[in-house]
TrEMBL record:
Name of the molecule in the record: DNA polymerase I
PANTHER family: DNA POLYMERASE I, DNA POLYMERASE NU
Enzyme kind, highest EC tier: transferase
Residue stretches making up the DNA-directed DNA polymerase family A palm domain: 633-840
Subunit details: Single-chain monomer with multiple functions.
Gene Ontology terms for molecular function: 3'-5' exonuclease activity; 5'-3' exonuclease activity; DNA binding; DNA-directed DNA polymerase activity
Length: 876
DNA sequence: ACCGACACGC
DNA sequence: GACGTACGTGTCGGTA
């Protein structure tokens, strides 16, 4: 096996981790963010690189040999924050548990240790991988030494090979130090030549190759000022280069062979992870599963073969297990039940046939606490069992307490709330192809533990909700909504399969023709769906100009192709091919795959516990992204039809709900006035941003205003806006500034909400939905900016989600009250789609807008538009 | 089995 | 001055 040495710059990675992550505390009040970041980075690189040898190098003491050259070296640096210093002993402890050697050397920096060992190892035939957060290290890169520099956060690593350096800077790795000599390095207090930055340095080095050669030929430099500067700071440049040069001859006392890595000691490492509170990482430790799973305490439970009323109590924690993700098709595997009578395992066959169970299930006075109410309801409903009286959903409660935490498996959710007496599903059932229902007692015990977990967490989670003022949000909004969603999903949407088959045949024909023409243009056959092959055809063979690159090659995305449209006829064909191909594979074939053949219906699943803003998502099939924008795609909607003869599809959507919410939250006078007067909001925005009258707003101005409004609603950056408008970032930034000047109330809101997020650590919606935004205090500009946009955007998007959710609940109640047969089928973020009997249309025209518009009262009017027809396509 | 590129909706 | 820039779902090709 090839020997591979990994050299990690310990100080640098710890620093990066510390500044990239929010200040985490473990339960003992020790800060752990740097250790945590260090660990995640380590796990990732061990997994990816599989090194045979490793060393983590640290800086030793304050002074190094460089200080004798320049006593100000690294001067002006801020003191290491105590919150970070206190973490270093834990980093060392962590490395020891990993069985990774660490090393420091008096008078030398970690860089020098790494440089020296890298060269030694390369000479001994090793592949060498260096990991640091400091770009200086890239100078070490050679054919066998690759330097990985952490990018965003700490686990995203950019690989610097000589080729990559050449591509990025147009320089060789050796020239990196010449560049540093010229431009200096503020963080190390290396002066360089004042006025010379990266751009100038690269330009000069391309011409003169080395600093020495440049300084010997200053007369050939163009630019008077530059010449003078180089002349004046000649010595300083030489010294700077010297400071930036990593020595490859440090008196390192370890040999490369001593650094062999034998793999970590699982038990030791587990102990360290536990001490630090790294619960989320426990599961990622290979071999840890067995150890973790051994730790659950013993429980006793009873397997109930024949159910009588006596097993149930007034309050019951019930866990319904469906192993498959898709509970519309997957079967129930069993039940766990926990109440004051004891802990019970109810095997699936007997339970589903038990009349006692059925009666208990539908008795709403018998209270049930569950995990994932919607899943439980639908799974039971398929067996004609009506589950009523649910007054707690652990999954839903946990989501409301922190929507950013993932909710993949019971054990993970429970553990977050300190219930650990349950194994993960993966441990019990296995994963991937090996996943299967556990046998009798093993299954029983697992399900009982889950029921016990629900029982255990019921009170504490209610209390937490109460403390967050989220009791109403839980009981009045999300829990009732889950019942409505269950019904919608179970009802399903009827699909015109014949229509889809027709479209499939027609599109297949057209695709074939386009494909032939594309191959004709290209002069050869290739896979048009492969961006890689397409890139070769367009940019290598046809020689079209390269607009954008991805990290794997040429970009062939639609925005790139649109810019090339006039360069070659093939482009138009490819765009058409893509459009039709998307329709065919995702929407026609994809939809046909998930149609239930007995009913010709699709049963999506709405994920109620996924997004951090409070929106729903939809899968299997995703019915929230059915095409509408382009006419060709919109036709897909013709295949969505009512499930009963002579019924119609009735669709109602909120007009500009997010911007109305913004007007409400920000109390912006002009925005409120615009909505009160029922103005076209994009035209109004254009008038204010461009300072023109209504009749002077051109279509282009309106288009730009619309994009700005879009940006406000989705929290995009100036860069994002520049991309969508095809303008520069600077211009986009100016647009945003002008917008904010035009709507000072909005500007104030944006400023205030950021302060609020910083003070509280979270932002809230009108119905007290929360989203924590720890990165808001990050010292990393990117993370912080992103967090700020999140803080601005979440209350807007989240409150809009609150409103439509409330409308769904009110709507269900209203339909019930009016005795209508109309059924709610879908929610698509700002619209509700129903199927309805013809004779209820007139009634719906009145009540649907009424209910939706008054779900929550805002400071501005809320407007709903509706339409209906024989298919979803016609409801436009 | 997983990742990146791409494309659809809001 | 660079960083890398709404989210969620699904398909495909390419590689493991």
């Amino acid at each position: 096996m090839k020997k591979k040495l990994m050299l990690i710059d310990g100080n640098s990675i710890a620093y990066r981790a510390f500044f990239a992550l929010p200040l985490l505390n473990n339960d003992k009040g020790i800060h752990t963010n740097a250790v945590y970041g260090f660990t995640t980075m380590l796990m990732k690189v061990l997994e990816e690189e599989k090194p045979t040898h490793i060393l983590v190098a640290f800086d030793a003491g304050k002074t190094t040999f460089r200080h004798s050259t320049f006593k100000e070296y690294k001067g002006g640096r801020q003191k290491t924050p105590p919150e970070l210093s206190e973490q270093f002993p834990f980093v060392r402890e962590l490395l020891d548990a990993y069985g990774i050697k660490r090393y420091e050397l008096e008078n030398f920096e970690a860089d020098d240790i790494i440089g020296t060992l890298a060269v030694k190892a390369e000479q001994e035939g090793f592949e060498v991988k260096v990991i640091s957060g400091d770009k200086d290290l890239t100078q070490l890169s050679t054919g066998h030494i690759t330097v990985g520099i952490t990018r965003k956060g700490i686990t995203d690593i950019e690989e610097y090979t000589p080729a990559h350096i050449q591509e990025k800077y147009g320089l060789t790795a050796d020239q990196i130090i010449d560049m540093k000599g010229l431009m200096g390095d503020q963080s190390d207090n290396i002066p360089g030549v004042p006025g010379v930055g990266e751009k100038t340095a690269i330009k000069l080095l391309k011409q003169f190759e080395t600093l020495e050669n440049l300084l010997a030929n200053i007369d050939q430099v163009s630019g008077k000022k530059l010449k003078e500067r180089l002349e004046e700071f000649k010595d300083q440049a030489i010294m700077s280069k010297e400071l930036a040069t990593i020595t490859k001859e440090a008196p390192v006392t370890v040999t490369v062979d001593e650094l062999s890595f034998e793999g970590y000691d699982v038990e030791k490492l587990l102990a360290v992870f536990k001490e630090l509170g790294f619960n989320s990482l426990l599961g990622k430790l290979e071999g840890a599963d067995e150890i973790v799973s051994e730790e659950v305490k013993e429980i006793s439970f009873e397997t109930v073969e024949s159910i009588t009323e006596a097993v149930f109590a007034a309050e019951n924690s019930l866990y319904v297990e469906v192993l498959e993700d898709n509970y519309h098709t997957g079967e129930i595997a069993g039940f766990g039940l926990s109440n004051k009578n004891g802990n019970f395992y109810l095997p699936v066959e007997t339970t589903l046939q038990s009349e006692a169970f059925k009666q208990w299930a539908k008795d709403e006075t018998k209270r049930k606490q569950v995990y994932d109410a919607k899943r439980s309801i639908v799974a039971l409903k398929r067996h004609d069992i009506d589950l009523q009286g649910i007054d707690f959903d652990l999954l839903l409660a946990s989501y409301l307490l922190n929507p950013s935490e993932s909710t993949e498996d019971f054990a993970g959710v429970a553990k977050r709330h300190q219930f650990t007496n349950v194994k993960t599903d993966e441990v019990v059932y296995g994963k991937g192809a090996k996943k299967k229902v556990a046998e009798g007692d093993v299954l029983g015990e697992h399900l009982v533990r889950k029921a016990m977990g629900i029982a255990d967490l019921y009170e504490p989670l209610l209390k937490e909700l109460e403390q967050n003022e989220q009791t109403d949000l839980f009981f009045e909004l999300e829990l009732p909504l889950s019942l409505i969603l269950a019904k919608m999903e179970y009802t399903g949407v009827k699909v015109d399969v014949e229509k889809l088959e027709e479209m499939k045949a027609e599109i297949a024909e057209r695709l074939k023709e386009i494909e032939a023409r594309i191959h004709e243009h290209a002069g050869e056959k290739f896979n048009i769906n492969s961006p890689k092959q397409l890139g070769v055809i367009l940019f290598d063979n046809l020689g079209l100009p390269v607009i954008k690159k991805t990290k794997t090659g040429y970009s062939t995305s639609a925005d790139v192709l649109e810019k090339l449209e006039h360069e070659h006829e093939i482009i138009r064909e490819i765009l058409n091919y893509r459009q039709l191909g998307k329709l065919q594979s995702t929407y026609i074939e994809g939809l046909l795959k998930v149609v239930h053949s007995d009913s010709n219906k699709v049963h999506t699943r709405f994920n109620q516990v996924l997004t951090s803003t409070g929106r729903l998502s939809s899968i299997d099939p995703n019915l929230q992204n059915i095409p509408i924008r382009l006419e060709e795609g919109r036709k897909i909607r013709k295949a969505f039809i009512p499930s009963e003869k002579d019924w119609v599809i009735f669709a109602a959507d909120y007009s500009q709900i997010e911007l109305r919410v913004l007007a409400h939250i920000a109390k912006d006078e002009k925005l409120m006035e615009a909505f009160t007067n029922n103005m076209d909001i994009h035209t109004k925005t254009a008038m204010d941003v461009f300072h023109v009258e209504a009749d002077e707003v051109t279509s282009n101005m309106r288009r730009q205003a619309k994009a700005v409004n879009f940006g406000i609603v989705y929290g995009i950056s100036d860069y994002g806006l520049s991309q969508s408008l095809g303008i520069t970032r600077k211009e986009a930034g100016q647009f945003i500034d002008r917008y904010l000047q035009s709507f000072p109330g909005v500007k104030n809101y944006m400023e205030d909400i950021i302060v609020e997020a910083r003070d509280n650590g979270f932002v809230s919606t009108v119905l007290h939905r929360r989203r924590y935004i720890p990165e808001i205090t990050s010292r990393n500009f990117n993370l912080r900016s992103f967090a700020e946009r999140t803080a601005m955007n979440t209350p807007i998007q989240g409150s809009a989600a609150d409103i439509i959710k409330k409308a769904m609940i009110d709507m269900a109640a209203r339909l019930e009250k009016e005795g209508l047969r109309t059924r709610l089928l879908l929610q698509v973020h700002d619209e509700l789609i129903f199927e309805a009997p013809q004779d209820e249309i007139e009634k719906l025209k009145e009540i649907v807008p009424d209910v939706m518009e008054h779900a929550l009262e805002l400071a501005v009017p809320v407007k709903v538009e509706y339409s209906y027809g024989p298919t979803w396509f016609d409801a436009k």
